[in-house]
Amino acid sequence: MATSSSRPEPNYDPFLPGTSSRSMVVELDAEALERMRKRADFKEFGGYTVYCDEPPIVGGDNSAPPPLIYFAASILF
Asked: Does a structural domain hold residue 15?
C-alpha cells in the first residue's frame, strides 16, 4: 500500500548546496523629489529606477504609482 505525503515535494532545491537558508541584500538610493514624488535607484540586478507618487487628493501629481501599489504587487508576485 502506497502512502502519500501530506506535503508535496518541491521540484527544485531551494537552498544552495551545503546551506539551509538563503539571504539577499538589496542596496538602493532613494530621493524625495518635488511634492510627493520619489525616486529609487537600484544598482543590483542590472540597475533600474523606480518612481512613486501620490494622487492629487493627498498632495501628489499622480505621475507614478503610489508606494502602496508596489507593496501590493510585491505580495502578489
From this structure: no
